[in-house]
Amino acid sequence: MNSAIRKSNRMKKEKKFLQIAKEKQINNFPLPEYIFLKVTEQKGFKMPPIGSRVSKFEEIIPGVVSPVMGEIKEILNIPVDEIDTNVIKIAPVQEEETDAEVPDSLIDESTDNILSQLKKSGYFLEEEISSGCDIIISAADADPLCSVSQQILRDNQSSLKEKFQLFKKLVNRDNIYFVVAQHQFEQVWQLQTSGVALVKIPSYYPSALPEVIIDSLKRKYSLKSPLYISIEDFLNICTIAETGVPILDKVVSVTDFKGTRNLRVKIGTPVKFLLEESELKNGSKVIVGGPMRGYTVYDTDTPVTWNISCICVQYKDNIVRAVNNQCLNCGKCNEFCPVALSVNMITRYSEFSNFEKCGELDVDNCIECGICAYYCPAGRSLVQLIRLAKSELKESVGEKEL
Amino acid sequence: MKLLVSSSPHWHSGSSEFKINRDFIIGLIPAVIHSLYFFGMHAARVISLCIAIAILSEILIMKVFKKKADPYNGSAVYLGILFAMLLPPTTPYWVVIFGIFLTVFIGREIFGGLGSNPFSPVLVGMAILELSWPIHLNVNLSSVNYNLGFDCHSPLTALKSAGADYTSKFSLFELGLGNQVGGIGSVAILFIILGGIYLLIRKVIRWEIPLFFAIGVVGMAAIFRAIDPHVFACPWFHLLTGNVMIGMFFLSTDYSSSPYSNPGKIIFGLGCGILTVLFRAMSVHEDGVIYAILIMNLFTPMLDKLVRRPKELKLHILE
């Protein structure tokens, strides 16, 4: 009874904030028409000839592993993660049923072997493992509307204990912090005895941002430069170490602000194919990386990379217009700001080019979570004004040093 | 296909100036009903005149200032209704027109419009009217031709002229129900509290200013009462008379003229309450709420400097 009341009170209190998304089932996405593989290293390596065949998990050039069997179509230059990058376009072909050799478990092999295998999947852990830093594993998604980590936690809650033992053996580390959102905390209750420090965070928006988690844990447990990985990466690392097979799948949330689908896609799948169900029109917005901190793309050919876990479509009538309304001084931005900035004063100073005053008000502490602009009743472009102040301040500091 | 690009954030809660002003207007509706019940068409005349002139003068001033007028955001309507609540029912139409024009012009637009006014605009208009034509705003004179069913003697005038002992004939219960003379809506204590609670629930205003306003009034009045109970009225009497309630919930919580920091809000509310009682007890004015809030508005920029700026995250995500 008592706990029920407390729970409902807590829910009411949290309703005030932007809730992070609840779990949603993950479906496998079928093979797309073509995929784009980012070329990370070019110097001294020959590009493969166009038209040549690649097999699954073949290292085309060092650091680039094909997630599918297919044919190299062409080499293009398209924006990937907001940067123009050379990519290899591969058209997958349906795999023949072969008796693929099952690689042996890598668990008993040397760490170097495992690390080289991890590299194939894009995990570069050598430095972190040798430096002996603390490890934070987060099972909460930074952006609201994205439910990838939450669902992965739910799917794997029974096997987490063994995975942690394996991971500890792999990285040779005892101090591992496992961050779970409050609404999922009961799912990991049994982990308390497994020697992992469980950290409970509230289920509303800015609390699951990596910056916030790292900063809070640093202060509470006095950690030094911890390594932050998501639960998806953690499980991938464990699976690779167990089976020796690289993992080139990524789970992404695809949402149009109303319904969400969680899809397991091959790395390099163009966003275009994931958005086939939504009706994109002129003037729609495709946001990669969540509605609060993501960036928009002008070309839906941009591929899914390891950094992307949420893709949003915003239709014309829901788009937030940038307007230059006057501040009402209502104080909502200050009330919700996670770093307790005087957002109203900073943005007004920034609006009238008084950037030094912004510096006095610690504008550099801003983590650009966007919660101020979310709540602003005047609809001011608060985050943009803060970014302007930050960059102007940086420039003026640079000038002074010169 | 052309896609739109912009920088983050891409999401908005949907709150707007219009929604905030709508909530403020809804908060005043109980008081409007009270005024219409007691004064009928006379109250309707004052209220509709105020709303109409507020909108017209905003459009006119914006034309002169060559800015884009937005009468649909509801702020002019809210100003009109709030101003009307403070006026007696028999106020001549030209006083009403002049007052609401000054409210919009001197109170707000001259400083740069919504969000830029250093004083609560309604109070600026009201203070000018009270100092210029006190005879037209005299609440006792205005009620002589009405049969309201209760003693048409302003409790604050009674306190000022006859002392605290005389005020014992006003029962606190009757005062709380709004059975007293004053502005058409500002004396509807119960209804204004209802509206204020609505604003608090909707989180349009924060609780600090109203609560500490009340604490200031009650605390200061209690000190005076302890000095001489024959001269100074009891604290609850002060709380339930005149413009204190409407001042607590609607006048002092005006966004741009009140502090945004929490410690600032507390001092602001306390100051308003203390000054109100000081004005009532020590000055020639019967009701000091208007001047008390205006004076505290002057301190707002200073109080905003009291905001605490922690060097670390405010969001306590860990227990």
Question: Can you walk through the features of this model?
Answer:
The complex is a heterodimer of chains A (402) and B (319). Helices cover 31% and strands 20% of the residues of chain A. Chain A has 402 residues and is an alpha/beta fold. In chain A, α5 packs across α7 (231-243). The longest helix of chain A has 20 residues, at 382-401. The radius of gyration of chain A is 23 Å and the shape is globular. The N and C termini of chain A lie far apart (67 Å). Chain B has 319 residues and is mostly helical. Chain B has one domain (17-304): Orthogonal Bundle (Ammonium transporter fold), CATH 1.10.3430. Chains A and B meet through β10, α6, β14, β15 and α9 of A and α1 of B.
Topology:
The complex is a heterodimer of chains A (402) and B (319).
Chain A (H helix, E strand, L loop, with lengths): L1 H14 L10 E3 L6 E4 L14 E2 L4 E3 L2 E2 L4 E11 L2 E10 L18 H10 L5 H6 L3 E4 L9 H9 L3 H12 L4 E6 L15 E5 L8 H12 L5 E4 H13 L5 E7 L4 E7 L4 H4 L10 E4 L6 E2 L13 E5 L17 H5 L6 H9 L3 H6 L10 H5 L6 H20 L1
Parallel strand pairs in A: 1-13, 8-9, 8-11, 9-10, 12-16
Antiparallel strand pairs in A: 2-7, 3-6, 4-5, 6-7, 12-13, 14-15, 14-16
Helix pairs in contact in A: 5-7, 10-13
Chain B lengths: L16 H23 L1 H25 L9 H12 L6 H13 L15 H12 L6 H4 L12 H8 L9 H6 L11 H13 L6 H20 L7 H5 L4 H8 L10 H21 L6 H16 L15
